[in-house]
Amino acid sequence: MKVIHARCGLAILLCLLVVRFPVHAQTAPQRAIAVTIDDLPAGAANSMTGAEIVQMTTKLLGTLREQKVPAIGFVNEQKLYKLGEVDDRIKALDLWLDNGFDLGNHTFAHTSLNRVTLQAWEEEVIRGETVTRLLLAQHKMKLRYLRHPYLDAGGDLQTRREAEAFLSSRGYAVAPVTMDAWDWMYAGVYEDARKRGDSALQQQLVSSYLSYTTTIFDYFEKVSKDLFGYEPKQVLLLHANWLEAEHIGELIELLRKRGYQFVTLEIALSDGAYSSPDQYVGEGTGWLDHWAITRGHPLQNEPVFPQWVIDKSHELRRQIPAAASN
Ligand SMILES: [Zn+2]
Question: Fewer Cβ neighbours under 10 Å: the N or C end of the chain?
Fold first, then answer.
């Protein structure tokens, strides 16, 4: 009996080791995310020279390439037309394709579908295709995605569905967003601090941005699990600005530590979650919100954006009108 007991004990011990080992060996869960970058050639293109836009783009894409992170940039072609600078601004777009990234349409003038008639908005989409389509064709690529400005996808269901049918007839898929830490709100303040050489404020903004990103991911990863029983491949919304150009490496590191692998938008959208029923209409918001509201369970206790950054941004906008957009 004693021998059997000892064997049992050993077996139990081995079982415990086998069971426990994989749990300890597990580092982070397997997650995937697509990086999408809006407002090309630059969020603040109106207050930047063409040369500066090229410099910022080179820096941003350099890190993405080094880190082997695929990305797609969404273009507002209106920002290309500045006298004497058109070549530089188009060159900034071309850098995306030369470096193996993709481009999509974000309408010509960043027009909200919720603020103009459907017909006027459709014209904005078509007007926004000209240069991007040409550049893509030179790289044997096609214009495949549209990102709604302000994430405004239609103020009523009929408009939303008609816009979707129009987009699909022109070969577009809508590019949804599931993760958004409002980098554009930080970016305006960051770029102003950068111009003034206020590196203390720049660092404070970067820390706050990364910490708010963590809060957003904690929250929406849980929401994802609650909605789907797993975490679908996510789509991250960023913007073309100096904050990302100089700090996207830290953001990538933060996400890798959470277990994220970086995938193309196409791969992210192959996740079944993106064909879930979506009847959302109203103010632009993320797709996890869309799905939750469609199911009749609006999200509760969403993270609150740091008020001090909003205050600083408003202060700036009072000094320089029309400085920021999302
Ligand atoms: Zn935008």
Answer: N
Tell me the CA–centroid distance for residue 99 and ligand 1, in Å.
Answer: 22
What are φ and ψ of residue 150, in 5° steps?
60, 10
Distance from the alpha carbon of residue 38 to the mean position of ligand 1, in angstroms: 5
Q: How far is the CA of 26 from the centre of ligand 1 (A)?
A: 38
Question: Measured between alpha carbons, how far is 217 from 156 in angstroms, rounded to an integer?
Answer: 29
Residue 12 has pLDDT above 60, yes or no: no
CA 250 / ligand 1 centre spacing (Å): 22
pTM greater than 0.70: yes
pLDDT in tens, 169-210: 999 999 999 999 999 999 999 999 999 999 999 999 999 999
Tell me the pLDDT tens digit for each residue of 19-70: 444 444 455 569 999 999 999 999 999 999 999 999 999 999 999 999 999 9
Determine the distance separating the centroid of ligand 1 and the alpha carbon of 227, expressed in angstroms. 27
9 CA to centre of ligand 1 in angstroms? 63
CA of 210 to the centre of ligand 1 (A): 20
Instruction: Evaluate if residue 14 carries a pLDDT over 50.
Output: no
Tokens 């079944």 correspond to 272
User: Which residues lie below 8 Å from residue 280, measured CB to CB, with a gap of 6+?
Assistant: 153, 289, 290, 291, 293, 294
